[in-house]
């Protein structure tokens, strides 16, 4: 594998493009939005600088990585010789299904089609293509250049050969891939989201305050960040939508999202990206304080 196409150049897409380019793959980074592509390139450059400062790569490595990335707004111009496509577009079923239908038409037969989805069924995505055996999940973690894990998700029809190829490729990126089967939430979010939801219920039922809940999990369980702050960073809207996928997929009330989470999302309090969730975030400042709404 040499040619990689990455669809979507947002938070995850720019990190995925960065990691492939750093490991000397040729990367076509594709987004419908030119501004998103420009922003992605500047983020990648900043993150490469950070790696140079830390001694992870040198200036030559940085220059080579940047040369390896080309950007496109038209999918067909970026994917026509791709060995692998990693789709990291907006988490929306209709958007993803339409991208995969299109990819199936325009990519060579050999191309493996991967999705970085956090929660949408790989089996369902594969079923809209004529090559479900070559459709697989590559669930990178944020921030991609730093986090070691790739959850490799086998759809119902994904072949052993394709799974092995993607596992090998993930190791070549310096990552530690873990193979899992395609059921709602896969492994990471099936375990993480109920914990976050339970933390929200714990606040909602008046057991303890926001800071107290996070402190218990940080100091008591050695988590680097409390579950409520982690929810803010993931995006409360993202947490809500993943919980709904778990709830629908298993039909089990234990996954029902806490009504407080639904209310916060409805009101536009989506966490760090919107400036406020359980905590308040000020642009350009590292200071994070518990939101006034959650102060006793
Ligand atoms: N953010 C995370 O922490 C995280 C972690 C793991 C997985 N994911 C998954 O990664 C994917 C991307 O998430 P993100 O946080 O990077 O989103 P994002 O909103 O930052 O970026 C999505 C990008 O996709 C582009 N896009 C939308 N439709 C497109 C299309 N048809 N063709 C090309 N580009 C298109 C948008 O313009 C945008 O730039 C989602 O499936 C998400 O569930 C996110």
UniProtKB/TrEMBL annotation:
Q: Which GO terms describe its molecular function?
A: 3-hydroxybutyryl-CoA dehydrogenase activity; NAD+ binding
SUPFAM superfamilies on file: 6-phosphogluconate dehydrogenase C-terminal domain-like, NAD(P)-binding Rossmann-fold domains
Q: Name one GO biological process term.
A: fatty acid metabolic process
Regarding protein family, the annotation reads: Belongs to the 3-hydroxyacyl-CoA dehydrogenase family.
**E.C. number, please?**
1.1.1.157
Task: List residues of the 3-hydroxyacyl-CoA dehydrogenase NAD binding domain.
Answer: 3-182
- Please provide the record's keywords in A-Z order: NAD, Oxidoreductase
Q: Which NCBIfam families match?
A: PRK05808.1
Q: Tell me which residues make up the 3-hydroxyacyl-CoA dehydrogenase C-terminal domain.
A: 185-281
Q: Where does NAD(+) bind?
A: 8-13, 31, 91, 96, 118, 142, 273
**Organism of origin:** Anditalea andensis
Positions bearing the site annotation: Important for catalytic activity = 139
Q: Which Pfam families match?
A: 3HCDH, 3HCDH_N
Q: Which residues cross the membrane?
A: none
For this entry, the protein name equals 3-hydroxybutyryl-CoA dehydrogenase
The lineage, from the top, is:
Bacteria, Pseudomonadati, Bacteroidota, Cytophagia, Cytophagales
Q: Check the record and name the PANTHER family matching this protein.
A: 3-HYDROXYACYL-COA DEHYDROGENASE FAMILY PROTEIN (PTHR48075), 3-HYDROXYBUTYRYL-COA DEHYDROGENASE (PTHR48075:SF5)
């Amino acid at each position: 594998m040499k040619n990689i196409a990455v669809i979507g150049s947002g938070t995850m897409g720019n990190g995925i493009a960065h990691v492939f380019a750093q490991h000397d793959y040729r990367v076509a980074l594709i987004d419908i939005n030119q501004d998103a592509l420009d922003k992605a390139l500047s983020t990648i450059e900043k993150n490469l600088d950070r790696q140079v400062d830390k001694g992870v790569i040198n200036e030559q490595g940085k220059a080579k990585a940047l040369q390896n990335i080309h950007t496109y707004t038209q999918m067909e111009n970026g994917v026509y010789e791709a060995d692998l496509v990693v789709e990291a577009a907006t988490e929306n079923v209709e958007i993803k299904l339409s991208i995969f239908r299109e990819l199936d038409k325009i990519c060579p037969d050999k191309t493996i089609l991967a999705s970085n989805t956090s929660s949408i069924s790989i089996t369902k995505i594969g079923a809209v293509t004529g090559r479900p055996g070559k459709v697989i999940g590559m669930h990178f973690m944020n921030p991609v250049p730093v986090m070691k894990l790739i959850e490799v998700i086998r759809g119902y029809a994904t072949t052993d050969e394709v799974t092995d190829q993607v596992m090998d490729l993930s190791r070549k990126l310096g990552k530690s891939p873990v193979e899992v089967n395609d059921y709602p939430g896969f492994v990471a979010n099936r375990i993480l989201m109920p914990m976050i939801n339970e933390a929200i219920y714990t606040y909602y039922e008046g057991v303890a305050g926001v800071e107290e809940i996070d402190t218990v999990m940080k100091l008591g369980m050695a988590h680097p960040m409390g579950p409520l702050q982690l929810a803010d960073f993931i995006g409360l809207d993202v947490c809500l939508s993943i919980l709904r996928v778990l709830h629908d997929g298993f039909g089990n009330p234990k996954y029902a999202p806490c009504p407080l989470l639904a209310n916060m999302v409805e009101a536009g309090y989506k966490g760090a990206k919107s400036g406020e969730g359980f905590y308040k975030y000020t642009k350009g400042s590292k200071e994070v304080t518990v939101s006034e709404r959650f102060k006793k």
